[in-house]
What does this fold into?
Amino acid sequence: MVHGKVTNVEGRRFDHAWVEFKGKVFDPTSNVKMDKSKYYRLLKAKAEASYDSTDALVMSARTRNYGPWTKAEVAALQAVRKKKTTR
It folds into this structure.
Protein backbone atom coordinates (compact mmCIF):
# COMPACT_ATOMS: atom_id res chain seq x y z
CA MET A 1 0.00 0.00 0.00
CA VAL A 2 1.20 3.48 -0.82
CA HIS A 3 0.24 6.75 0.84
CA GLY A 4 0.85 9.91 -1.12
CA LYS A 5 -0.75 12.78 -2.96
CA VAL A 6 -2.71 12.81 -6.22
CA THR A 7 -4.43 15.48 -8.29
CA ASN A 8 -8.05 15.12 -9.42
CA VAL A 9 -9.55 16.37 -12.70
CA GLU A 10 -10.40 19.73 -11.10
CA GLY A 11 -6.73 20.20 -10.22
CA ARG A 12 -7.22 19.68 -6.47
CA ARG A 13 -4.29 17.94 -4.75
CA PHE A 14 -5.09 15.66 -1.81
CA ASP A 15 -3.86 12.79 0.37
CA HIS A 16 -4.66 9.39 -1.10
CA ALA A 17 -3.77 5.70 -0.93
CA TRP A 18 -3.37 3.05 -3.61
CA VAL A 19 -1.91 -0.42 -4.06
CA GLU A 20 1.12 -1.21 -6.23
CA PHE A 21 1.92 -4.71 -7.45
CA LYS A 22 4.19 -5.88 -10.26
CA GLY A 23 4.27 -2.56 -12.10
CA LYS A 24 0.51 -1.98 -11.80
CA VAL A 25 -1.63 0.23 -9.60
CA PHE A 26 -5.01 -0.60 -8.14
CA ASP A 27 -6.91 2.37 -6.76
CA PRO A 28 -9.77 0.93 -4.67
CA THR A 29 -11.46 4.31 -4.26
CA SER A 30 -12.17 4.62 -7.98
CA ASN A 31 -11.83 0.90 -8.82
CA VAL A 32 -9.10 1.76 -11.36
CA LYS A 33 -6.36 -0.63 -12.44
CA MET A 34 -3.55 0.56 -14.72
CA ASP A 35 0.17 0.62 -15.33
CA LYS A 36 2.05 2.35 -12.54
CA SER A 37 3.74 4.85 -14.87
CA LYS A 38 0.39 5.86 -16.39
CA TYR A 39 -1.23 6.28 -12.96
CA TYR A 40 1.62 8.48 -11.72
CA ARG A 41 1.53 10.57 -14.90
CA LEU A 42 -2.26 11.04 -15.09
CA LEU A 43 -2.81 11.80 -11.41
CA LYS A 44 0.53 13.50 -10.82
CA ALA A 45 0.90 10.97 -8.01
CA LYS A 46 3.70 11.41 -5.51
CA ALA A 47 4.37 8.53 -3.14
CA GLU A 48 5.24 9.59 0.40
CA ALA A 49 5.28 6.23 2.21
CA SER A 50 4.79 2.60 1.31
CA TYR A 51 3.96 -0.45 3.41
CA ASP A 52 3.92 -4.17 2.75
CA SER A 53 0.59 -5.92 3.30
CA THR A 54 1.44 -7.08 6.84
CA ASP A 55 2.52 -3.64 8.03
CA ALA A 56 -0.55 -2.02 6.44
CA LEU A 57 -2.87 -4.42 8.25
CA VAL A 58 -1.07 -4.02 11.57
CA MET A 59 -1.02 -0.22 11.29
CA SER A 60 -4.73 -0.13 10.40
CA ALA A 61 -5.61 -2.31 13.37
CA ARG A 62 -3.38 -0.43 15.83
CA THR A 63 -4.49 3.06 14.82
CA ARG A 64 -8.06 2.21 13.79
CA ASN A 65 -7.64 4.13 10.55
CA TYR A 66 -6.27 3.58 7.06
CA GLY A 67 -3.68 6.32 7.35
CA PRO A 68 -1.72 8.22 6.48
CA TRP A 69 0.08 7.38 9.67
CA THR A 70 2.29 9.70 11.67
CA LYS A 71 6.01 9.18 12.07
CA ALA A 72 5.40 8.31 15.73
CA GLU A 73 2.88 5.59 14.79
CA VAL A 74 5.29 4.07 12.26
CA ALA A 75 8.17 4.27 14.76
CA ALA A 76 6.06 2.38 17.35
CA LEU A 77 5.50 -0.44 14.86
CA GLN A 78 9.21 -0.57 14.04
CA ALA A 79 10.08 -0.71 17.75
CA VAL A 80 7.75 -3.70 18.25
CA ARG A 81 9.30 -5.46 15.25
CA LYS A 82 12.80 -4.78 16.57
CA LYS A 83 11.92 -6.28 19.96
CA LYS A 84 10.65 -9.44 18.28
CA THR A 85 13.82 -9.89 16.21
CA THR A 86 16.15 -9.44 19.20
CA ARG A 87 14.48 -12.16 21.25
Remarks:
- Strands lie at 2-7, 13-21, 24-27, 32-35, 46-50.
